[in-house]
Amino acid sequence: MNQYDVAVIGSGPGGYVAAIRCAQLGMKTAIIEKYDTLGGTCLNVGCIPSKALLDSSHHYEDAIKHFEEHGIDIPGEVKVNLKQMIARKQDVVDQNTKGIEFLMNKNKIEVYHGLGSFKDATHINIDKDGKTETIEAKNIIIATGSKPSTLPFIELDKERIITSTEALKLKEVPKHMIVIGGGVIGLELGQVYKRLGAEVTVVEFMDRIIPGMDGALSKELMKVLKKQKVKFNLSHKVKSVERKGDEVIVKADDKKGEEVTLKGDYCLVSVGRRPYTDGLNAEAAGVKLDDKGRVEVNDHLQTSVSNIYAIGDVVKGAMLAHKAEEEGTMVAEILAGQKPHINYNLIPGVVYTWPEVAAVGKTEEELKEAGVDYKVGQFSMRALGRARASMDLDGFVKIIADKKTDEVLGVHMIGARCADLIAEGVTAMEFRASAEDIARMSHAHPTYAEAVKEAALAATADRALHA
Ligand code: FAD
Fold first, then answer.
1. pLDDT tens-place string over residues 318-334
2. Which of 240, 301, 379, 391 would staple 455 via disulfide (CB 3.0–4.6 Å)?
3. What digits encode the pLDDT tens for the residues 115-134?
4. 370: CB partners within 8 A, 6+ apart
5. CA 320–ligand 1 middle distance (angstroms)
6. Across residues 23-28, what is the average pLDDT?
């Protein structure tokens, strides 16, 4: 029987990063993945393919809406070739998953393909094509991720009533896509198909989209998406989704309890994700799950069994690839006897719509509720020379700082390239910068990053220069 210092179950961004860090630290490491390709949700049916389609559809939208103004004439009609778009996306996915294979080889990590299930706390059965192989490991890291969840009354047929996984490989552009759930995944994929020509209607239970992010971001994003002709039904409780031939009928109750009927040809159900432990046989090892089906862990990501750890989407916290990666690194370093630490307050959240939305730290709502005395500096993208040059005028940067100490407590932004810009907020907050610190740093001109400096200036005695 093959023996390891560490076995990782699941090869998503949590699992593969944990495996690499374990190997770097000198541990004999194995990774087990039930699918044929490595990389988990993120690389196969999540972050990477969704961004590939967002990029392609963005190019198309630019071509039909903005090229003329830029002085670029295209003789003939610009058309969507969805088959090629999906093929390019798959190519991007393949390059990335092969890259993980390369990294596993490079770090001498043994890869097992098959369903991993606990035999006991130090043995894992790996089932593939009716054969079972058992390996032994001193320590085990559960990184089995998550799957799309649904509502109990919705029957996903995966053809027209679909999850994000199917939305990444449609064979036609929907005429009318009804998106249930106004969160990150629904809005990103909704925008892809909107740009490609679909009518898109978002139905959201809450009274705002991207709940959890700062209210100012929700408002601005909704305003911009409405300009892009995305339709919204907020405060609507979906009660049935039915398919009749090629038609999908969604019924919901509005705020007043009145029934609203929406008809489309596709319905994307994006109401969140559930932790995935199916087939893991966690109980054989004595690993406890919590009431939400997540693997229960302490602050060191250790489960109820001392040599078994869990990370990523399958444990509490934000379901994000970079959070999973940090946790993978943390567990590997704990196993090596180090004392790593994750500041969960500084895990940024990003929505890759255009304009992009990004945030780190506390929202204004959270600070209000906690009774913290704060001040806000906000600066509009449209006042930037860079934004005018690219015609990406929507959005703003909002910096919230402690009223007394000026320490930055939250950075919230919407606009072009905010997904990358948020790194400045994370760095500043990691070093416990004050708004004045950011305000006094030189930011290259002309860049979108100047909005960060200007918002910091606005937060320190209202002294933005270009407002
Ligand atoms: P996963 O990536 O889910 O990987 C778990 C792996 O474990 C899977 O490969 C699974 O097959 C395997 N597995 C499960 N059980 C077993 C078993 N018993 N034996 C063997 N293998 C098993 N996050 C971001 O940060 N940025 C984004 O832009 C972003 N975009 C997204 C877009 C979409 C459409 C979706 C669906 C998600 C997106 N996410 C994004 C979320 C991100 O994909 C997840 O947070 C991330 O993949 C979690 O990583 P993980 O390692 O915990 O699990």
1. 999 999 999 999 999 99
2. 379
3. 999 999 999 999 999 999 99
4. 362
5. 8
6. 98
Task: Give the separation between CA 376 and CA 353, rounded to whole angstroms.
Answer: 25
Does the CB atom of residue 32 touch ligand 1 within 6 A? Answer: yes
d(CA 243, CA 251): 12
Handedness of CA 99, 101, 102, 104 (dihedral sign): positive
Q: Please indicate whether residue 377, judged by its CB atom, sits closer than 6 Å to ligand 1.
A: no
Q: Ligand 1 center to residue 274 CA distance, Å?
A: 11
Ligand 1 pocket member 181 (CB < 6 A): no
* pLDDT at 446 (0 to 100): 98
What is the pLDDT at residue 373? 98
pLDDT, mean of residues 379-393: 97
- pTM for this structure? 0.97
How far does Cα 147 stand from its chain's mean position? Answer: 13
The amino acid that residue 386 corresponds to is R
The pair of three-digit structure tokens given for residue 109, joined into one six-digit string: 């990590």
In terms of C-beta density within 10 A (0-12 exposed, 13-18 middle, 19 or more buried), how is residue 111 classed? middle
